[in-house]
Amino acid sequence: WFCRKCNESAVFQQHCHYRADDSKALYAVLKEKIFLENKELKENIKPFLQKELDVISKQRLEIETAYKTAKELLETCERLLLEQVKSAAKYLANALQEKEDEQINRIEHLQKVIERKVDDLESLIQKNSNLLSSDDKSIYCLFESKIADFCTYPELKQLNGLEKPEFKPNLLVHETFPHFIGEFIYQGTENHINQFDIRTDNFEIVKKHLQQHPIVLKVLQSSSPTQGSFDFATVSPSRVLTSGAEKRVQMLDASMRDGSLQTYKVSCESPYIAFSSSRGIYYSHRTDDQRSTIKTIENMNSNEIDTVLWFFDVELRGLAFNSFGHLLVCVCSKKDKRSFVERYDRNIIKVQEIEHNGDKPLYKKPSFVCCNRNGNVCVADHGLNAVIVVDQFGVFQFSYRGQNENSFRPYSLATDHLCNIVITDNVNHKIHLLDKYGEFLTFLMTEPTIVTPGAVVIDRKGKLWIGESMSGKVHVIKYLGGNSVKTPVQRPTALTVGAIIRSSTATRLSKVV
C-alpha cells in the first residue's frame, strides 16, 4: 500500500526506495520492519550462533586436552624407554664383564699350566743332554722315558669352553624407526551410531532355532510307489492329503503303522490340492471343452463335489489358503500369454490379481504357491526357475534363484511359523531353507538323503513333510528346535476398495530387485 506500482499490479516485494504519499506512514512501516528484524536477530539468530560457538569452544577444549594428554604420554614413554634402555645396557654390560672375567681367568690359568709344562720340558731336555755327554754306560741303564708326559695335554680341552662375544643390537629399519615405541590413533569428535540391521538380527534368531541335523521322524509309503506324490495339503498335525499321477486324493496318517488312512477316489486331471480352514478339500480340474474349474469336497466325511470357480482358456496350477481363509490360485493364460496369481475371499469373490512388478511381469509359469504368517505370497515358478515373493498387496519383495542359478530347479515350497521358506529342488536333490527376507540359511540334509524331493508341506506342529517325486515315499522331518508350535488364529480381515487401489498403485510403482 505504500508502493503505488506494486499495489496496482498486486505484486508485493521489497524496494530500496519507497514512494509513498504519507512519509509518516512510511517511517512507521520501516521502523516496524527494523524492530522485527532486530527481534529476529536477538531471539533466533544470536542464540543459534551462540550455540554453535559453544559447540566449537567445547570441541576446541576437548582437542587441546586430547593433544596435551598425548604429548604427556609421549614424554612419559620417552622417559621410561630411556630408563629401560639404560637399565638394559647396564645389565648387559655387567653380564658381559662377568663373562669376560671368567674367560680371562680360564685363559690365565691355562697359560700358567702350559708355562710350567714348558719349564719341565726344558729341564728334561737338559737332563737328557747331560746323559748323552757322559761316558759312564751304567747311567744309560737308569734312563726312564718322560715323553709320554708331554704327548698328551688334557689342559688344552679347556679351550673348548672359551667364547667370544658378538653383540647384535635390536635396531629397527629406517622405515619403521619413528613408530618403534608406538603410534597415535586419531578418533573423530562425533560418535558414530551403528544402524540396526533387522535382516542380520532375524538371521541370527532363526539360526538359533535350527537343529544341527534334521531328524527323520517317520518314512511313509503312499499307495503309488512308482509314481510318487504331486502335491500336499496339511489336515492336522499327523495327517496330510496327497495327490499324484493316479488322479485321486489320498490321506496319509503318521500315527498309523502303514501310513495310510483313507483314499478319496476323485477325478483330478490337474492334481493341485488345498485344504481350507472349514475342512473342505479344493482341487483344480480340466474338462474336455477346454474349461478349467476349481472343485471342492465339502468335508472329510463327504464325497459331495461342488464346482466353485470356472475359467476359460487358462491353465490352473497351484492352490493355497492364507491365514485369512482366502484362496490363492496360480493361473497361466495361453491365449494372451499372461501368468498371475488370483486371490479370492471366503465368499469366492476375486479381490486381487498379482501379475506385475512395475512394468515387468512377475511370473512366467507359477506352479506352486503358499503364504506365510505375515501375508507374503510365495510362488515357485517353473518357467523362471525361481521363487518369487510379494507382500499381501502384491508388491515385490525378493526373488531367489538358488545358490547356483544355472542348476537351480525349484519344485514346491512351504513356510513355517518363523516365516522361513522351505524349497525342494528335485533335480539337484536339495532342500533349501530361506528366512523371511530371502537370506539363505542352509541346506536341510537328512540321512539317508531324500532323492528327488518334490511335494512339501509343514503341519501346525512344525513338522516338515517331503515326498519323493519318483518313489512315493513321504518323509516326516523335524528341523526346528523347541516344542510344538501353536499358530494363532487370525480373524478374517476384508480387503477394502481403498486397499485394493493402493495395492494396484504400489505394484505399478515398485521396482525390479
UniProtKB/TrEMBL annotation:
Q: Which PROSITE patterns match?
A: NHL
Q: Which residues form a coiled coil?
A: 82-127
Source superkingdom = Eukaryota
Database matches in InterPro entries: 6-blade_b-propeller_TolB-like, NHL_repeat, TRIM-NHL_E3_ligases
Which keywords does this chain's UniProt record carry?
A: Coiled coil, Repeat
A Gene Ontology annotation in the biological process aspect, one of them, is: proteasome-mediated ubiquitin-dependent protein catabolic process
GO MF annotation terms:
ubiquitin protein ligase activity; zinc ion binding
Residue stretches of each NHL repeat: 366-393
Q: What is this protein called?
A: Tripartite motif-containing protein 2
